Amino acid sequence: MLLQPSLTWPSISGRIPFAKSNLDEYNPSEFVAFDAFRPRGPTDEETQAASLSVLSVDMRVAENKKDHNTHKYVNSNLIVRRNKEFTIIVKFNRDFNEQQDNVELEFLIGSSPDENRGTYIILPIGKEKPEVRWKSRVVETQGNYVTVGVTPDTSCIIGRFRIFVVVVSDLGKQRTERNTDTDVYVLFNPWDPADHVYMDKDEDRQEYVMNDVGIIYNGEFNNITSRSWNFGQFEQGVLDACLFVLDSGKVPLVFRGSATEIVRQASALMNAQDDDGVLVGNWSGDYTEGTAPTAWTGSPEILLKYAKEGGEPVCFAQCWVFAGVLNTLVRCLGIPARVITNFCSAHDNTGNLKTDIVLDEDGKVDRSRTKDSVWNYHCWNEVYMKRPDLPEKFSGWQVIDSTPQETSDGLYRCGPTSVNAVKEGELSYPFDAKFLFAELNSDVIYHQCNKQGKLKILNVDTAYVGKLVVTKKPDSSDYEDITSTYKYPEKTVKEREVMQNAERSGMPARDYLPLTEAGVTIEIQTDTVKMGDNFKLTLNINNQTSQTCTINATITGCVAFYTGVTSTTFKLENKSATVEASKTESLTVDVNASEYTPYLVEQGKLLFVVYGHIEETDMSLSTMKVVTLQPPKLTIMMSGTPQVGKDLMISVDFQNPYNFILHNVQLRLDGPGLIPIKLKTYSQILPGGSVKYKVSMVPRTPGKKVLIACLDCPLLSQVTNELEIETLKAE
């Protein structure tokens, strides 16, 4: 009996609209009759007795997952990687005859399956079909059990495929019923040299594909701090949520076989700036309508919330949150990825290699005229892949950045940009190399504005931006300095050649160089400062000239966001020093907590700008420094021996060391393989008061795990800690 109209797809692919969702499906009929007369033959009863039918399909989930390095995914379905064989066992109602029986496997994805677009794959069991790039073979036959090997094409679409086993007879095609348990996810394969995301070292694959907890670095270049981040790419529901992100962004299925295309689309879909993407960026300091960026501990909570709410953007994010969640998405799909931190990162400079700091006649920062800023740090991602659209030397690590800054081809996105191309100043290749180059190589230009509004360049710092680029070392909690992969050392011949290449690629000429050197430098130094402490700034004035110099210095202290945007000026002080030829003198500036504490914004950063005037030469100089205030400690303790399936008690302690009340406090606990997100709220913590949060958890899997804790409130952020837990196997 024909249950529904037979499904046919036009052979001309242009007649079918792009299928944009992995979730939508249109399945063929269970039985499709051949519309043809057939000769008189056996009775229907005899035909039915002799006919072949499918009793069951075993996807061999556990065995295949282990073989495909997908065993960590908490998902009951089979998950495999491209260009690697997986095996399934088909049980028939009678012995299978490879020569006489005609059986096919069908793999379908999306709402408009089409053989010409790689969304409808037909594989005859035991027979070659040259025009199909997927492969199948009969591995073993044991009576009515047949083991079939299937190898997805090395460039096939990434996503969830539906599987049908089809018995072809003279009467027609008999398909198995639609069964979601037999659906199979196909991912990129960094273990296979034929895949564009291939990575040859296993230690790198373990770090950049399989590691589900990472470290994101922040602070300042000479005082680096860090926070752990739960990437959680294997957690339950995360893979489906990542595919949902692509579906919500209406990324055509036919584009999903290209790593270059997927990461470019993903960098746009991670922010909600123009396409209702995953995260809403917010740098205002007001997060009452959502979660403060500093309060998140990982990606699964965000991705699952986005998917559960049907694509409603999640509030709120800043650069490290965008980078952390994007890292999860691409690792989950099988693309090697890592989070990068660029210290002293130029922003909002329209790619002109200039960051302008404007001072008034008295040497104070003119906040109304200073529009550009240097972010204390900025996080983006690198993905590892071959770039078939570029010369071979520009394959390897590629930058993608989902923090909404500038549009690229009409959307807020950035990349993939070849790191090698940026280093060499070859900026004409796609995508967005000029913007990235400016973030790393802009000059900081100090101007002085007179009463008539005329600007005069005081000095240029060519080495302030892109001071240090770091990422997490493989199998370590330390950072790796990768600055040399992005740029050559300052003031070297090679660096000058790169700048010339950049100008030939369309970057503006640096016609303001060279300036006459003042012969005197000022360096600002300070020790590590805890939030709420008094401290001292030391100004080291080095006179490199052959005569004594008298320097009058103006020190401006501002509260600043990590983006370099200043909030309130809390300090203005003038100092003078006489420095003999070829000597160094030091000045100290006292900074009291009572001066800055009332004006603090999130992440506790202070920006100091020094303007110096040399009396003898009438020349000027300027410099600046960001001081990151260290937050108080959060303590995590464990009681008992961690073992799979057994209760483990965790205690998190915090004491308020300040003389002000902390209101609306959130405490998060997070750890893949250990505990689902735990959120505890406190209406207030009094000065000197403390809180203790105890929770019991049951580890799910053995091995090394990381438990992450984060305390956050409007007056205090970046209070984090983590605890490594080595979980034993169940007895």
From TrEMBL:
List of residues binding Ca(2+): N441, D443, E490, E495
Catalytically driven reaction(s): L-glutaminyl-[protein] + L-lysyl-[protein] = [protein]-L-lysyl-N(6)-5-L-glutamyl-[protein] + NH4(+)
This enzyme's EC code(s): 2.3.2.13
SUPFAM superfamilies hit by this protein: Cysteine proteinases (SSF54001), E set domains (SSF81296), Transglutaminase, two C-terminal domains (SSF49309)
One record GO biological process: blood coagulation, fibrin clot formation
PANTHER family: COAGULATION FACTOR XIII A CHAIN, PROTEIN-GLUTAMINE GAMMA-GLUTAMYLTRANSFERASE
Name by which UniProt lists this protein: protein-glutamine gamma-glutamyltransferase
Organism lineage string: Eukaryota, Metazoa, Chordata, Craniata, Vertebrata
